[in-house]
Amino acid sequence: MKILLFFFLTFMIGLAHAQSFDYARMAPHPRLLLKKGETEEIRKNLEAYEPMLRVHRYILDACDQFMIAPTVERKLEGKRLLGVSRAALKRIFYLAYAYRMTGDKRYSQRAEQEMLAASAFTDWNPSHFLDVGEMTMALALGYDWLFDVLQPSSKETIRKAIIEKGFMPSKDEQYNWFLKADHNWNQVCNAGMVYGALALYETDTALATEMLERCMQTIGLSMKAYDPDGAYPEGYNYWGYGTGFQVMLNAGLESALGTDKGLSQLPGFLNSARFMEYMTGPTGASFNFSDAREKGQADAMMYWFAKKTNDPSLLWVEQSYLKKQTLDFAEDRLLPCMIIFGAGIKPGGIAPPQSKFWVGHGKTPVALARTNWREGEGLYLGAKGGSASTNHAHMDAGSFVFEAAGVRWAMDLGMQEYYSLEKENVDIWNKSQTGQRWEVFRYNNFAHNTLTVNGKLHRVEGFAPIVKTFTGDDKLGAVIDLTEIFKDDLKGSSREIAIIKEKYLQVKDEIETTNQPARIRWTLVTAATPKFLNANTIELSAGGKRALLVIESPKRVELKTWPAQSQHAYDAPNPGISLVGFETELKANQKSTLTVKLVPQP
């Protein structure tokens, strides 16, 4: 850890004492991601790999729909313009790609119209600066990729918009708190400003240089999230968002200036692609802890990681998405990157990962096990520690998901869409111990596959590390120390979660009480139908398949079901979901073991 910290500090100190780049090496337009002459390699790759040609056609079909739709309009959803900014980025990126690949000026002309429409907005909503970051990137990409075909008057209008609605608000202290953020806001907003700077470098050299140097002084804060192993603290969907824009930033610097000055080599960053690969189970569902959705999606940035590390096995899961009847992409506005970064990757060389287990530490420790890499086969476990204080976190330390026989038996409800709560004036961004965020059903520990002690919420500031791992075929899993999560209610608590002999899941809680007794609630969230068979066994059934939830110890427990929703009208419904488990009373000054097995039935 000390070596990693030294590397990071050396990197940041080096940037502080010199200009980061040799700006004389700035490439001519187009310089962002795909330079002049590089489209030919793309075309050859499309001819050689049918699934990627399908993505290309998907983009062209989308462009044809953009051509008959109204241009983007400045319409807020609550406090956000983000949906509009994302629509603009998708349209401009796709249309500019379509023009460069086909030479059809209808695409470039429509992209120009979209850029002028966005340029005419009164502002890009700097109070929610993600909106500005994505819109700036949108116009920068269009300006750079279509530099030779834009009308001179349009080019000047777009240039002024990037400066006045992008750069200038980013220098205003009431808006630029993202420069001090250690999460995805830093990555997205800095990436947008960098793209604007690279696009306008010739005409606005001093301002562009300022934006670039400022980024290099501040982006390291968010890069620390990957240290030490690559486990991204904000979960599956936000890996796609934060890391996606980080890759855009790194790749943009490399294409325009020949280097990202070591950003890609910072501790854990390249390894985070392996984290992402193991975050999907055989059913295709993700380990959707924190603010994430369950559905797995193809991610364009995995192709960048595969090429950067020369490791095609990172695409084992990705290639399956491109063979599905319906294509579905994460951060789909960045989709042309899949074709750009995927050029030259030979499909026949994609082999499955060699290991069945992956563990990451850092802010949100995770243990991920998959016994078989064929789609729909094998057992899968995703288990986590961490803290509810992390960005976008839930009270889910000690929680897990589990799959077997093509069924997700233990699930995570995932996120509730923000606007559905914000429009009801729910303060979901107050993460204090008494903050309203924890009243939202899907966010607290009562609705996760973890323990609840004495009916209380988990401690927000508590941290649960992974303290031991099991990597053999007889046992795949980890031990998570939950002591800080239950401080004041328990003297000690650790949870071992593991796949045993590649046949079933075992969850073993070692608990030591204080000088007061403790009531323990053990919860499992499932879409299966539960049936109590006896005092210690619950049968789960789903899709004609069965699994048994067997409480081996203690022998005296009270089997329970709980409602899968609260009394709050603002909580999203959870149809078809059951919360099952048990409660038990532990005496004061006592050490106890709670052992539960989840056993798929033949």
Automatic annotation (TrEMBL):
Keywords: Signal. Residues 382-557 form the Heparinase II/III-like C-terminal domain. Pfam families: Hepar_II_III_C. GO terms for molecular function: lyase activity. It is found in: Cell envelope. GO terms for cellular component: cell envelope. The keyword Signal applies. Residues 1-18 form the signal peptide. Its main location: other. PANTHER family: CHROMOSOME 1, WHOLE GENOME SHOTGUN SEQUENCE (PTHR38045), HEPARINASE II_III-LIKE PROTEIN (PTHR38045:SF1). This is Heparinase.
